[in-house]
Structure formats: structure tokens, C-alpha cells
Write a structure and sequence with these properties.
Layout lengths: L1 E8 L8 E8 L6 E11 L1 H8 L15 E9 L11 E5 L8 E5 L3 E3 L6 H21 L7 E4 L5 H12 L3 E6 L2 H8 L5 E4 L5 H8 L5 E6 L13 E9 L13 H5 L4 E3 L3 H4 L3 H16 L7 E6 L3 H9 L6 E5 L1
Amino acid sequence: MAKTQAILIRDLGGPDVLRLEEVDLAAPAAGEVQIRHAAVGLNFIDVYFRTGLYKAPNGLPFVPGKEAAGTVTAVGLGVTDFRVGDRVAYAGADGAYAVERNVATRHLVKVPDEIPLETAAAMMLKGMTAEYLLNRTYKVGPGTVLLFHAAAGGVGLIAGQWAKALGATVIGTAGSPEKIELALRHGYDHVIDYRNDDFVARVKDLTGGKGVDVVYDSVGRDVFPRSLDCLKPRGMWVLFGQSSGPVETFDMSLLAQKGSLYATRPSLFAYIATPAELAACANSLFDVVRSNKVRININQTYPLADARRAHEDLESRKTSGTTLLIP
């Protein structure tokens, strides 16, 4: 059996539990291909699995990571849609923090020749998240006014550009002058310094007291329930992450009190559950990137062996935009 290297988590906890180890690499099984990764995406969901906030599907030990791009090096029995040499990417197949791995073809999409593999690795999870949020969770278009928390994050920078291309008025929050400037260069009309300003009051000022149609919230506890106070009557609060911690259980009557609001807790994987849904989502993303309406900027890279430092920087908010681990 061949060998490769991967980051293994043997115990739940802080970034120190991330360790590079030599692991076995079997031949791909039926319905699988083997991939040599060019780059692996770093996402906050990786932290949730590392700490145990989200439960790893197969228990301990496990290889974290859900997003990467690379080249097919072998195919398993019955695989007809992919062949050796194909450039592929995925989001949603656990075990991405590895030099090489096997992955079921149901998770894969082919990467267009015009898109570098590093760019594909940087945008699959974040970009497809932006796609479903803006196009399917709440249909953004001309006249939409929205608030996007963590505007300088990986999803935020993609969503700001995409929402602006769709004709929306785009308001964001960020936590430093550098991040505010970064978001303003990526589609945002206004960016609020949440560390120094009352974002609810600023949203009301910017909207003439009306509020926004939709709040996209990946922060969670630290901005709840104030996010609800930013919404118009019958507006929608979209909680798609919890970087500051989970929102505690709340009384549903709060939605009525604040204007007959809607609330949803979506996840990408429910939106790409079938091969057809995955292909449609990915192709929409590829199209908007190839059109140059959305730029994918890789702001930080770390060697795969430095996954611990990458997690430390992510959690301490030292990173902005997209981060890659390079095998």
C-alpha cells in the first residue's frame, strides 16, 4: 500500500492537535478517484470540527478539511466521468488536509482550463456558499439592500462583488481599517467598523431608517439579536455560521415582535446534495469568475505542515479573505 502525508486530529481541542503524519493511501475504490492536491482551502468549518462543535462523521482520528483542488492520478472501478490528468475540485468531501487522497466522484467537478487550481481550491466552498446565499436562500437582485457580517472574510469578499453585480446595495461589517478598505474594494457600498460603531444605528442611518431586506450572518452569538434590529418588517435573517459561538435558543415570538421576520439556518451541503445541484452551483460560480465580475484573491498561504499556525491566525482574526494550505 502506498503512503502519503496528511494532517490528523487524534484528540479534539485547540490548533495544537493538528499534526502532520504519514498515512496509508489505498488504491481508489469503485466510484472513487485518487487526487494529488495542488492546494487545500482553509475554512472556519474546519475549526468547528477540530474543537468538536461539529461531530466528525467517522469519529477520531480524522483528517480535517472539506475543500481542495488537484489532478486525478488514478481512477477506481466503474468511473467513466473522470480520467487520469483531469483537473478537479470539490467542497464537502471530508479529509482535504492531505497531499493525496481518494474521493468519491459525486463530490467532484471539473475545473475549467481558464481557472488555476489554486484559485479553484480558494473558491469552491466559499464561492458556492455565496452562490446559494445570494441566488437561492434569498434572491438578491436590483433594489435589494443587504447587510453582510464579516465582509472581509472569504465568503464576504466573494459575496460583496457578486451582490453588487446583481444590482444590490451592499452593506458590510468589518473589524479594522485594513479590512474595511479591503471590503470596499470588493463590491461593498458601505462598511461599518463593528468594533467602534453601533452597526444597528449605522444601518438605520444608511437606509433612512428602513433597515435591510436580508442580513447574512456567519458570526452568530456576538451580533445576535442586534442583527434582527437591522431588518425591515418581513426581512430575512440568514444565519450560516457561528464564528463567535452558537446563537443560544431564542423565543420564536421575537421574530414577530421585531416585524414578522423570517429566519433560516442553511448549509451549503443541503444545496449541493445531488450531482445536478452541485454542477449547477459550481457552474454558476465558474461563470461569474470567468466574467471577471468576481475576483478570487488568495490573501494568505501556509504549507500544509503549518496547519496549526494557519488555524491560530484564522481564530485570532489575523487573516482576511481566502487562505490556502499548500501540500
